[in-house]
Amino acid sequence: MSSVKEILTRKPVAATIRLTVPAGAARPAPPVGPALGQYRLNLMAFCKDFNARTQKYKPDTPMAVTITAFKDNSFEFIVKSPSVTWYLKKAAGIESGSSRPGHLVASVVTLEHIYEIAKVKQADPYCQHMSLEAICKSIMGTANTMGIKVQKELD
What is d(CA 89, CA 147) in angstroms, rounded to the nearest whole number? Predict the structure, then answer.
């Protein structure tokens, strides 16, 4: 529960902006420029901070970022790891999932792939309190809906 002092010292929020930006490739061009520009935020400050935070990822890895814009033209942002579908497509070596999941198998991944993806996703703010087993089950469900079969070992 927040104290009265914390509530009174909070900055008024102008907007919450959600973007998907390639790692290390934030530039003041679209889609970043127009999204931040309409709230009069400092584009170069965001680009430098974002690129510094995402330099450990491979270039062109799609990163989800949530930007909170305040009325005094300041901002803060949270960078999340890439989506589970992106990781599954990379692990399976495919461009897209099955056109008919449940009927056609697009590719196969092992439980080891699922476990490695779960370990990466466990660092996300929304998955910190979930057990590794629960994250693995969620990833297996996502793989199933993409038409990717999960096996113990590859044949």
Answer: 11
